[in-house]
Design goal:
Length: 144
Protein backbone atom coordinates (compact mmCIF):
# COMPACT_ATOMS: atom_id res chain seq x y z
CA UNK A 1 0.00 0.00 0.00
CA UNK A 2 1.22 3.49 -0.85
CA UNK A 3 -0.19 6.36 1.18
CA UNK A 4 -0.26 9.43 -1.05
CA UNK A 5 -0.69 13.14 -0.38
CA UNK A 6 -1.16 15.77 -3.06
CA UNK A 7 0.19 19.31 -2.86
CA UNK A 8 -1.54 21.82 -5.12
CA UNK A 9 -0.79 25.40 -6.18
CA UNK A 10 -3.05 27.92 -4.51
CA UNK A 11 -2.94 30.15 -7.56
CA UNK A 12 -4.83 27.34 -9.29
CA UNK A 13 -7.13 26.35 -6.43
CA UNK A 14 -7.81 29.66 -4.68
CA UNK A 15 -7.54 32.18 -7.49
CA UNK A 16 -8.62 30.18 -10.52
CA UNK A 17 -11.09 27.77 -8.94
CA UNK A 18 -9.45 24.44 -9.69
CA UNK A 19 -11.12 21.66 -7.67
CA UNK A 20 -8.39 19.12 -8.50
CA UNK A 21 -10.81 17.05 -10.59
CA UNK A 22 -8.17 16.10 -13.18
CA UNK A 23 -5.67 15.04 -10.52
CA UNK A 24 -8.30 12.98 -8.71
CA UNK A 25 -9.64 11.40 -11.91
CA UNK A 26 -6.18 10.26 -12.92
CA UNK A 27 -5.47 9.05 -9.41
CA UNK A 28 -8.58 6.84 -9.65
CA UNK A 29 -7.71 5.68 -13.17
CA UNK A 30 -3.99 5.37 -12.40
CA UNK A 31 -2.98 7.61 -15.25
CA UNK A 32 -0.33 10.30 -15.45
CA UNK A 33 2.31 9.90 -12.74
CA UNK A 34 0.02 7.49 -10.89
CA UNK A 35 0.64 4.95 -13.66
CA UNK A 36 4.24 4.62 -12.45
CA UNK A 37 3.19 2.61 -9.40
CA UNK A 38 3.16 -1.19 -9.80
CA UNK A 39 -0.30 -2.37 -10.85
CA UNK A 40 -0.62 -4.64 -7.82
CA UNK A 41 0.16 -1.82 -5.37
CA UNK A 42 -2.86 -0.37 -3.60
CA UNK A 43 -2.91 3.44 -3.74
CA UNK A 44 -4.55 5.34 -0.89
CA UNK A 45 -5.18 9.06 -1.24
CA UNK A 46 -4.67 10.37 2.28
CA UNK A 47 -5.26 14.05 1.65
CA UNK A 48 -4.83 17.12 -0.51
CA UNK A 49 -3.45 20.43 0.67
CA UNK A 50 -2.73 23.62 -1.19
CA UNK A 51 0.47 25.59 -1.01
CA UNK A 52 0.04 28.55 1.39
CA UNK A 53 0.76 31.01 -1.41
CA UNK A 54 3.88 32.42 -2.99
CA UNK A 55 6.51 32.69 -0.27
CA UNK A 56 7.78 36.29 -0.57
CA UNK A 57 10.40 36.59 2.18
CA UNK A 58 9.74 33.34 4.00
CA UNK A 59 11.18 30.98 1.42
CA UNK A 60 10.16 27.37 1.95
CA UNK A 61 9.32 27.90 5.65
CA UNK A 62 5.74 28.84 4.86
CA UNK A 63 5.24 25.61 2.95
CA UNK A 64 7.00 23.53 5.61
CA UNK A 65 4.50 24.82 8.17
CA UNK A 66 1.52 24.12 5.94
CA UNK A 67 2.57 20.67 4.79
CA UNK A 68 2.52 19.39 8.40
CA UNK A 69 -1.23 19.18 7.97
CA UNK A 70 -0.59 16.46 5.39
CA UNK A 71 2.61 14.78 6.57
CA UNK A 72 1.02 14.08 9.97
CA UNK A 73 -0.80 11.15 8.34
CA UNK A 74 1.96 8.60 7.61
CA UNK A 75 2.60 9.43 3.98
CA UNK A 76 4.81 7.41 1.68
CA UNK A 77 4.66 9.88 -1.18
CA UNK A 78 3.74 13.47 -1.98
CA UNK A 79 2.78 14.40 -5.53
CA UNK A 80 3.32 17.99 -6.58
CA UNK A 81 0.45 18.72 -8.94
CA UNK A 82 0.89 19.32 -12.64
CA UNK A 83 0.02 23.00 -12.11
CA UNK A 84 2.90 23.30 -9.64
CA UNK A 85 5.19 21.61 -12.12
CA UNK A 86 4.16 23.98 -14.91
CA UNK A 87 3.68 27.20 -12.95
CA UNK A 88 5.66 27.33 -9.72
CA UNK A 89 8.98 29.22 -9.82
CA UNK A 90 9.83 27.83 -6.37
CA UNK A 91 9.47 24.17 -7.27
CA UNK A 92 13.15 23.25 -6.94
CA UNK A 93 13.45 25.05 -3.59
CA UNK A 94 10.36 23.30 -2.29
CA UNK A 95 11.58 19.95 -3.50
CA UNK A 96 14.90 20.43 -1.69
CA UNK A 97 13.28 21.67 1.52
CA UNK A 98 10.78 18.83 1.65
CA UNK A 99 13.40 16.20 0.85
CA UNK A 100 15.53 17.49 3.73
CA UNK A 101 12.62 17.70 6.14
CA UNK A 102 11.03 14.37 5.15
CA UNK A 103 13.70 12.03 3.79
CA UNK A 104 11.37 9.03 4.06
CA UNK A 105 8.63 10.55 1.91
CA UNK A 106 9.07 10.17 -1.82
CA UNK A 107 8.41 13.31 -3.87
CA UNK A 108 6.86 12.96 -7.29
CA UNK A 109 6.59 15.91 -9.64
CA UNK A 110 3.26 15.77 -11.41
CA UNK A 111 -0.16 14.22 -11.14
CA UNK A 112 -2.54 13.95 -14.10
CA UNK A 113 -1.70 13.21 -17.71
CA UNK A 114 -0.26 16.14 -19.60
CA UNK A 115 -2.63 17.09 -22.41
CA UNK A 116 -0.83 20.24 -23.56
CA UNK A 117 2.78 21.36 -23.35
CA UNK A 118 3.78 23.31 -20.21
CA UNK A 119 4.31 26.34 -22.47
CA UNK A 120 0.78 26.15 -23.82
CA UNK A 121 -0.58 25.56 -20.32
CA UNK A 122 1.26 28.63 -18.99
CA UNK A 123 -0.07 30.69 -21.89
CA UNK A 124 -3.66 29.66 -21.12
CA UNK A 125 -3.31 30.25 -17.38
CA UNK A 126 -1.76 33.67 -17.98
CA UNK A 127 -4.74 34.57 -20.15
CA UNK A 128 -7.08 33.54 -17.33
CA UNK A 129 -5.21 35.69 -14.82
CA UNK A 130 -5.13 38.69 -17.13
CA UNK A 131 -8.80 38.72 -18.07
CA UNK A 132 -10.66 41.81 -16.99
CA UNK A 133 -12.37 41.06 -13.69
CA UNK A 134 -14.54 43.20 -11.46
CA UNK A 135 -13.41 43.80 -7.89
CA UNK A 136 -14.91 45.12 -4.67
CA UNK A 137 -13.81 48.57 -5.81
CA UNK A 138 -16.35 48.32 -8.62
CA UNK A 139 -19.08 47.51 -6.08
CA UNK A 140 -18.03 50.34 -3.76
CA UNK A 141 -17.89 52.80 -6.64
CA UNK A 142 -21.12 51.55 -8.19
CA UNK A 143 -19.41 50.34 -11.35
CA UNK A 144 -20.54 46.72 -11.07
S1 LIG B 1 4.54 29.23 -4.40
FE1 LIG B 1 4.25 28.01 -6.25
S2 LIG B 1 2.69 26.50 -5.69
FE2 LIG B 1 2.60 28.14 -4.17
S3 LIG B 1 1.01 29.56 -4.92
FE3 LIG B 1 3.03 30.31 -5.65
S4 LIG B 1 3.23 29.40 -7.71
FE4 LIG B 1 1.62 28.23 -6.63
Amino acid sequence: MVRIGILTCSNATQDLGCCSASCLADFRKRRGTFSDYPAEEELVLVGIINCPGCPTLTGADKLLQRIKGLTAFRLNAIHFTYCMKALCPFLKKYEKALTEAYPDIKLIIGTHQEHVTPEEYRKRVKKLFCQDRKSMADVILGKD
